[in-house]
Design brief:
Number of helices: 36
Shape: globular
Strand order of the largest sheet: 2-3-4-1-5
Number of strands: 7
């Protein structure tokens, strides 16, 4: 058995369950073979470059595709990775770095792309090294140029730690790491003058393909083929420039495009035929596309550069003061990229376009104005949604995962500008994200903000409380107690009963896990006194949690059962999923220890369903192990061993360790499975579990069929008529909510809700909200 860690890691939030490790190896997923996106448009040409890249990867661990912006490095890397993925047992994985602005977060980006979770004490780079050590996979690091040093450090660490990993990097200059092979990426092959096989030329084929997609009727003919060839030559064969020109065939002929481009380039070189640097060719093409825009479209395009990552229509309305029509026009002109993330429409800029937009924003003198507007928008929106997020946690976490790159950019902006007041407000409002998604990252941001000691007293107190909470999750009671005492002291001065209750309850847990029962009891008594004046659900459940967890340390199982029973009732009624998950696990554990396994299993079942819904990896790992115990006890030894393997893989993927008080029960699980299977078969089934898709493991534990049935009540229509956001709106309309109430529920403006309602009416052919409600009710019943 692996050595175990102290129970601190679950004392505040990751309640007990069991995890066993036997000759630890990392999970090797066989079904989930990567995260490469589907190609939205056809891939054209590049046969030579693809062949050379394959050849280099056969001899080198790291191959960097180097070339200017817009030359097609990303598309080439993705096509090559897609072709090569089958040769890697662990598949091919894309890490998008364009949206990462902070070099210190490169490791976090790689970890997130690999579907790992920063939810414990393990530093992201250490987690990466451990996870990748025995993997055979292909890693694609895209857009490294603005993070060269940080990207190079990660690549060096990965290459040293993981002999089975190969890396493809796309960058404008080499990473300069040991063993790197550089593959320069030229523009597409240009058509020769008088070439009679233009249809086979890469640049011409790209123009024709994109023009046909844009205009619907464009064809290469004997009348226009020479003009198309001239356009491709004028654009130096740069794919992005060709695509920007081709989309204009919606309103211009090929002859008009060539004429306008020629005029633009003639101005650039003073009427001569001197060669123009390729980067200037692209800039000039973008400038030409920009000048064809309306005033409103130009304004929106330059303002979109304030977003570090993906953005939604609501963000555009709130920061850029624009609307859907202008945004969709930019999408149609290939200046903005539209994507869907978990069914939600979102948008982003190509990195080259972002750089151009930033230039235009500076020229317009709007940099400071937009930075302030963006900061205010996210600080206020997160403050508004952060506190109640616990009561709508699944939806809030999905929203925050979409927005987190923009929020990170605002946190960095606040630090760089010394705006610690708003920075502290923002980082403290994201508590549930740090707790369930990015614990060590949250610690880093909080430490930097708190070091300045500036801000509103209450905001600083909540930040100290959150930092103490995270320290307990990281099993660091030495750091936790002073922070929680500081929060409690501020709460006393502010006469803030809820904060005082939560701070002293958490301090009681920290002291108990540190072995100081006297201090723990003193904090708990103060929490009991304060909660009477708080009249607050979060305060009440924090006291119940302290009573339950402390009771587990002292062996007072009746107290655990009573506290968790009340906590389950309160949190279930309020929809507080995280606390409900914890209370259920604690109640189940106490029930099991008291000898009633039959009553414990339904509690664990409900807890696992919640852990899946909010994607709480720590809880999933503990609960999968618990179901392994049930299976082994029922002489379903194979299932028991597989679930233990899946639990171990999930736990290690979250950077967590084993909880010490549960080690004896883990030993019982292993012994029961070994008695039936023997060592060789047990190890084989354990390995199957480690390689199992996590969702498949959860279904196995819950006894579900192989296919999850998506229902409209959870926001999915199934019929494909409505988008996810529209389905969310329809569901709330069916509940009788007003547009204002719907906006509050979904973190969007009332105006945006109205737009969605009108869209739903149009799509369904209805003319009233009552018809929407009736349609939704009938669909749910199907």
């Amino acid at each position: 058995m692996e050595s175990v860690e102290s129970p601190n890691s679950w004392a505040a939030g990751a309640s007990p369950g069991w995890v066993v490790t036997c000759r630890i190896t990392m999970a090797k997923p066989v079904r989930r073979l990567g995260n490469l996106p589907a190609e939205a448009t056809s891939f054209i040409g590049r046969r030579r470059e693809l062949a050379e890249l394959r050849r280099k990867l056969g001899a080198a661990r790291v191959v960097s595709l180097v070339g200017p912006g817009g030359v097609g490095k990303t598309r080439l890397a993705l096509r090559a990775a897609s072709d090569l993925a089958r040769g890697f047992r662990g598949g091919a994985w894309l890490v998008e770095l364009a949206e990462v602005r902070d070099p210190s977060l490169v490791g976090n980006a790689v970890m997130a792309s690999l579907d790992l979770r920063d939810q414990a004490a393990t530093e992201p780079r250490a987690l990466l090294r451990t996870y990748l050590a025995d993997k055979e996979l292909l890693l694609v690091l895209d857009n490294c140029e603005h993070l060269l040093e940080a990207a190079a450090e990660i690549v060096n660490e990965v290459v040293r730690a993981a002999p089975g990993v190969r890396v493809i990097a796309t960058t404008r200059e080499p990473l300069a790491v040991a063993g790197e092979h550089v593959l320069p990426i030229p523009p597409l092959e240009l058509p020769a003058v008088g070439d009679g096989a233009l249809r086979q030329n890469e640049a011409v084929a790209l123009f024709v393909e994109r023009a046909a997609a844009a205009a619907g009727t464009f064809e290469l003919t004997s009348a226009n083929q020479a003009v198309v060839a001239d356009v491709c030559r004028r654009l130096d064969g740069l794919p992005l420039a060709i695509e920007l020109a081709a989309v204009r065939t919606r309103v211009l002929s090929a002859e008009q495009i060539l004429e306008r481009l020629s005029d633009r380039f003639s101005l650039l070189v003073g009427g001569g035929r001197a060669a123009i640097p390729r980067h200037q060719t692209l800039e000039t093409t973008i400038e030409w596309s920009h000048d064809l825009l309306s005033a409103g479209e130009r304004t929106l395009l330059r303002r979109l550069c304030v977003f570090a990552g993906r953005f939604t229509l609501e963000d555009v309305e709130g920061i850029c003061e624009s609307d859907l029509d202008h945004l969709l026009s930019l999408v149609e002109k290939s200046l903005v990229i539209k994507e869907e993330v978990r069914g939600v429409a979102c948008y982003r800029l190509h990195e080259t376009m972002r750089e151009y937009a930033a230039l235009k924003l500076r020229e317009a003198g709007e940099v400071e104005t937009l930075a302030e507007r963006c900061t205010d928008y996210y600080v206020q929106l997160c403050a508004l949604t952060g506190a109640p997020a616990r009561y709508r946690l699944a939806e809030w976490l999905e929203w925050m995962e979409l927005e987190i790159d923009n929020v990170r950019a605002i946190l960095r902006h606040c630090l760089d500008r010394g705006d610690f007041s708003r920075g502290t407000d923002l980082v403290a409002s994201l508590g549930w994200f740090w707790i369930t998604r990015a614990t060590t990252e949250g610690v880093g941001w909080l430490d930097q903000m708190l070091a300045a000691g500036r801000g509103e007293k209450e905001s600083l107190a909540w930040a100290c409380f959150l930092r103490g909470f995270l320290a307990i999750l990281q099993a660091d009671t030495t750091a936790a107690l002073p922070l929680l005492e500081r929060a409690a002291e501020a709460a006393r001065e502010l006469d803030h009963a809820s904060l005082l209750t939560q701070a002293t309850s958490m301090a009681s847990i920290a002291a108990m896990t540190a072995g100081d029962r006297a201090a723990s009891d003193a904090f708990y008594e103060e929490a009991l006194t304060a909660v009477a004046a708080a009249n607050d659900l979060a305060a009440t459940t924090s006291v119940l949690q302290a009573r339950a967890l402390n009771g587990m340390f002292t062996g007072e199982l009746d107290a655990v059962r009573d506290a968790t029973s009340e906590g389950v009732s309160l949190s279930r009624e309020a929809g507080d999923l995280y606390v409900l998950e914890i209370m259920l696990m604690e109640q189940a554990f106490a029930t099991l220890i008291m000898g009633d396994a039959g009553a414990a299993k339904p509690l664990y079942t409900e807890a696992l369903k919640i852990a899946r819904r909010i994607d709480d990896r720590l809880a999933q790992s503990y609960l999968l192990a618990a179901f392994g115990w049930f299976a082994a006890g029922d002489r379903q030894a194979r299932m028991g061993a597989q679930l233990l393997g899946a639990a171990e893989a999930t736990r290690l993927g979250a950077g967590a360790g084993i909880i010490a008080p549960l080690a004896p029960l883990l030993d019982q699980t292993e012994e029961a499975a070994l008695a039936v299977l023997g060592r060789a078969k047990f190890d084989a089934e354990l390995t199957v579990g480690k390689r199992m898709n996590r969702e498949a493991a959860i279904q196995l534990a819950l006894g579900e069929s192989g296919q999850i049935r998506a229902r409209a009540a959870s926001g999915e229509t199934g019929a494909g008529v409505l988008g996810k956001r529209e389905a969310d709106v329809a569901r709330l309309v069916a509940k009788g909510l007003t547009n204002k109430q719907i906006g509050t529920q979904l973190f969007i403006s009332e105006r945006t809700v109205d737009s969605h309602v009108r869209s739903i009416l149009n799509k369904l052919g209805f003319n009233s909200r009552a018809q929407i409600a009736g349609w939704f009710a009938s669909f749910v019943q199907r």
